[in-house]
Amino acid sequence: xxxxxxxxxxxxxxxxxxxxxxxxxxxxxxxxxxxxxxxxxxxxxxxxxxxxxxxxxxxxxxxxxxxxxxxxxxxxxxxxxxxxxxxxxxxxxxxxxxxxxxxxxxxxxxxxxxxxxxxxxxxxxxxxxxxxxxxxxxxxx
Amino acid sequence: xxxxxxxxxxxxxxxxxxxxxxxxxxxxxxxxxxxxxxxxxxxxxxxxxxxxxxxxxxxxxxxxxxxxxxxxxxxxxxxxxxxxxxxxxxxxxxxxxxxxxxxxxxxxxxxxxxxxxxxxxxxxxxxxxxxxxxxxxxxxx
DNA sequence: CTTCGTTTGCCCACTTTTCCCCACGTTTTA
DNA sequence: TAAAACGTGGGGAAAAGTGGGCAAACGAAG
Lengths: 141, 141
Hints:
The structure is a homodimer. Chain A is globular. Chain A starts with 6 loop residues before the first strand and ends with a helix. Chain A is built from six helices and eight strands, in the order ββαββααββαββαα. In chain A, β3 and β4 form a beta hairpin. Chain A has helices at 22-28, 47-58, 62-72, 91-96, 117-126, 129-139; strands at 7-11, 17-19, 32-36, 42-45, 77-79, 86-88, 102-107, 112-116. Chain A binds chain B through residues 38, 51, 53-54, 56-58, 60, 64-71, 73-78, 90, 92, and chain B through 1, 3-7, 106-110, 123, 127-129, 131-133, 135-136, 139-141. Chain A binds a DNA duplex through loops.
C-alpha cells in the first residue's frame, strides 16, 4: 500500500530546487504532479491520485467551475526530478506557499504537502486538540 | 493525457506577435484554433477540442443561438505559428482581450487562455476563496 | 501601367532561462 | 570501518523568448 507519511525538512537552493524525499520518490515514480491547495501550501500527487482529483473538476461545466479551474490548473505542473531527485519550484508556486529557504514536506496519506517551515510550525502550534478530539468522537474513532 | 497547465508570461511585440509556450505547442501541433470567450480573454483549442466545442454550438437552432454564433465564429481563426513559435494576434481579438504589451497564457485543462497581464492579476486578486472552498467541499475534494 | 508605401511572412541574432551533468560532504547501511 | 545512498551546490550546454531586418505581396494613388 502506497502511503505518504513522515515529515522531512529540506532547503530550497538558489535555483529554487527542492529535494523530494527518497521514500516518496519510490512511491511517485519518474514524474508526478505538483499543484497548489487553497491553504498556503503545495500538494504532490501521484499521476493516479491526480487523475481521480482532476477528473472530478474537469467533469464540471465551465459555468460553475471555471473559477476553480482557473485557480488550480495554471498552478499545476508535471514535475520531473533531476538525477539528484530535486524539482524546480516555479516562482508563482513558491509565492503561493510563501516558501523561503526552509521547507517541510509532509505526508498526509494519499498525497504529500510542501510547507514553508515557518508556516508549518505556526500551524502545529495553533492546533486545537479539543476540536480534533470532538471530531474523532463524531467519526467514531 | 494532453493537459494544459501552468501559466506563462510573454510580451506582444510591435508586430502583434505572441509566443506560444513550447510545452503547449507540443500538444497543439502545427496549427490550432484561437477564438474569443465571453470574458475579456482569448481561448486556444486543439483542433480536436475545438471540434467538440463548436459542434455543440453549431447543433443549436439559429432561433436560440444566432447571437452566440455571431459572437464566436467571426472572431475565430486557425493559427499557424511562425518558425519561432509565435502567432499574430489580429486587432479585433487584441481589442477584445484588451491586450497590451504584457500577456499571460494560462492552461485550464482542456484548453488554454490568453489574458492581458493586468486583467489576469486583477482577476486573481478578486478571487473568492470561500466559495471555492465550498465548491470543493461539495465535490468531496 | 507604374510607383510608392504599407503590410505580411520569413529569417537571423541576441539574451535569458532552463536543463543536465559533475562534485563535495554528510548520513545511513552493510 | 568501508561502501552506498542522500542532500546540497555550482558550472556549462542547450533551448526558449524577444527584437529587428529584409524581401515578397498587396493595394492605393498618380
